[in-house]
Fold each of these.
Amino acid sequence: MDMAAQPDLWGEIQIPDNVQTPLAILRRQAALLGPKTQNLIEATVDTDTAGGQLRYIFKLVVPTLDNYTYALFTVWPNLGAELYPVRVDYSLTLHTPDDFMEWLRKQLSSPQTGKIITNLLAQVTS
Amino acid sequence: MPTTKFLFWNINRKPLAGVVADLAEEHKADVIVLAECDIDSATMLMTLNRRERGQFHLPPGKNRAIHIFTRFSRDFLQLLHDDNRFTIRRSSLPARSELLLVAVHLRSKLHQSDESQKFACATLVRTIEEKEKQVGHRRTVLVGDFNMNPFESGMVGAEGLHSVMSRQVSSRGSRKIRGREYPFFYNPMWSHLGDARSQTAGTYFHDNSQHVNYFWNTFDQVLLRPELAARFDPNRIRIVTAAGKRSLVRPNGRPDNTSSSDHLPLVFELEF
């Protein structure tokens, strides 16, 4: 049987447009840090797999300190039929984009993150 | 095709961060390459970003002799090779052809014989060819302070950089000598020897009591593989003599090495 005779069983596949995936949200936030620090500290999101699971690692990078890297947190995305829930901090599960945004806001604006950034800035400008 | 602007300057270990930032702004440089830069990277970055936050980035690299800053995200200038005297970066900008940027600062004639300079060029070109093979293309640009004039053997010789003064000649791609293929570079700096344009007859002035003295030297050069030379306009490379209202030369056209550097900056544009 040639390929032309095969029925297409896939149904309609929609290519998503402007979907706020957790990765897109993380990357957008990462891009905002550099301009706030004159690019003395930049943020990146690395993707890798550990134990067969995909994960996003949100990192601070200090280019002028030989690219010293500080991993701020890790997000495990949901790769099934739905984009959410995502798992963060090993145990916390966030079920909606709003929950994720709120958690991310708390992480990025926390006194702890602020202190890390301030200390890194002090290292490079001293 | 999009254009990218480059600024190269050997700043002679002077505190010229502000002047570099002025030049970057004036010429809208996308990539800045500095040699003999003792300014720490953080200070340079802050000065470059003083007017518009986050404009310039410091891409990865550990080379202490050559400093590179770019308006492009640091991820787009990947480090391929770092050496004491040169660094090779792979530029992979979205929707653009890839490019190899080789930034060099070869040793001075004060510390190295002409013969040693030739061998240094042979080592440099071998490394470039390895990296070109690795990335699978020859869209390579070399920029820097070669401490040699365009006509010296290390720059011209087939075992050296094999750089010629004519795009038409370099468009042959390579030439064969006794069965071995030697790829060309095009060196537009041949057109910047002498005082046809102004009193500034090169990028570096040196007077001495030797019988042979060129006085003016064009040590700071840009070399292009034929793949890039084909779309290169030689009028789009300039030896810069002023940063805004601040002159970088004395009234006699020589670099003002008291308030500025003993070398003059180069700016050029590439299409890729």
Amino acid sequence: MAVDALQPATAHAPPAHGPAATGETIGVRVALIAVALMFFALFVFLPLVVVFLEAFQTGLQGFFAAITNPDALSAIRLTLIVAAISVSANLVFGVAAAWAIAKFEFRGKSFLVTLVDLPFSVSPVIAGLVYVLLFGAQGYFGPWLKDHGIAIIFALPGIALATIFVTFPFVARELIPLMQEQGTGDEEAALSLGASGFKTFLFVTLPNVKWALLYGVLLCNARAMGEFGAVAVVSGKIRGETNTMPLQVEILYNEYAFTAAFAVASLLALLALVTLALKTLLEWRFGDDIATTNGH
Amino acid sequence: MEIRIANVRKEFERYPALHGVSLDIRSGELIALLGPSGSGKTTLLRLIAGLEHPSAGTIYFGNEDASHKSVQERNVGFVFQHYALFKHLRVADNIGFGLKVRPRKDRPSRAEIRRRSSELLDLVQLSGLERRFPAQLSGGQRQRVALARALAIEPRVLLLDEPFGALDAQVRRDLRRWLRELHDKIGHTTVFVTHDQEEAMELADRVVVMSQGRIEQVGTPDEVYDQPSSPFVFAFIGESSELPVTICRGQVWLDDRPLSIPADCVPDGPARLFLRPQDVAVVDESAGAIAGVVTATHRHGGLRRFDLAIGGAHHRIEIALPAADSGDVSGRIAVLPRRWRLYPAGERYSKT
């Protein structure tokens, strides 16, 4: 591929050959690598291994018995539904917020940027409590909701709302810096060629951010499936009804059903690993394409 | 397509970018908007395109008022400074983009779009590169693809923003000539923005010199070079030296010495004398000439350039003489301008 001298330099500079000014001695390199590896082994790899070991403590049969338990199946189903709802909601909101922040100027823009980051800084438990305060039986809208027979807290809508709140930043955060860097040049070109706003978005803006969007969705999905704090507050932990997988794991663990707890936990970990593998696969398969659209 | 710009003003967040600009662009003309950065030339181009809307004033396309039309409705071909090619589309799809996004009833068939884009690739001399991605093209090739893409929609006017700004000198020269030929062949009304006076002078039928949101002068390259209407234009186009002089009853004075050049119609009072390095002749020291001491010489191709310190080293001017017969020029010399301009000192001026 031709070296593109005219584009703004991308983050990937070619590696320098020979001893670079920033090169370290062998000893330092080995020490650094060893520290990083040990830390990783101790804090990431070991727990993951333990999860899977514990899950299969009573053999394959115990594992399958644990995950085919009706309550476990219901938790899995609920987790997937909630993830699907929050990912699609945040896809729409995230793209809209990123578009607004990156592509035009308006009053209160920095306020919006701060709001996007809010879920990162607010404890998920507080997020959950806010929804209880709003929609709970004693909350602001509680009586009205009750009169109309709408259940939000201790039901799917509440869990979805809490999860959407917690996972909101992922898509937007992934898109904003990229869209800001890309500017509005391509959009102006498309408009000057007669494209409508929607076609410009579809044929120009979206392809330019597709990889960042995909990463955002994957991260958002991983977090949505794993969310505990906010969901714990709003779900009510009704077995077979409002328990998501993380909640189910906690309940089982508290009841000393270790094998069952770890079986569900291993499933959750597996979903995370699949997400990670998917991301790596995409990077490997479309590396060149990602580089040209200034993705990661 | 004639374009008429009438008293157009543009402000960005109360910061004025253009102050009441008027300009008539003739049909089929190749016109350059020339000025230093911040002169408003790109803003004017974007206003013509409809990428910006004027704060006041009107832009006419032919006889219709286009001021409030959107960029899509104006049907202009715009070539961006950094080309803005769609990175994810192949060359052929980039060129066909403007046709593909038309509403269904006006959209040519897929085969027709393909035929048109390969025709345009021929026109810009890039046949065979249909399947390439923009990242696989050189700067000059990208520039031409951007031009082909803009031409694909059969625009009423072609607008180019710093079309050669990002290219190296050799490619720039070639493309300039090629663009001129292309313009003569297809005959679009073409407006381009540049800060490179050489580019404007070589390429354009008429040059619009701009400074600080105003048009300083509109004229053919000869007119703006030979009869600059303001000190800014004189200093901006070509090389120049400036001397502060005083006019007193039709006589030009440099410090306390009278110069033997007529004061034209410049009123009495302080004034500024502009001359170009090559428009002087060395004379035997005599009354009425500009006397100075040579402080430096440089050989410059067929010319020899001299820095002169005039009147106790207060003023510096530069002159250029044919190298062949100026080998022995040194020390104290006197020069007489052959061509010059005088401007009253009050006139707005900003050298860049």
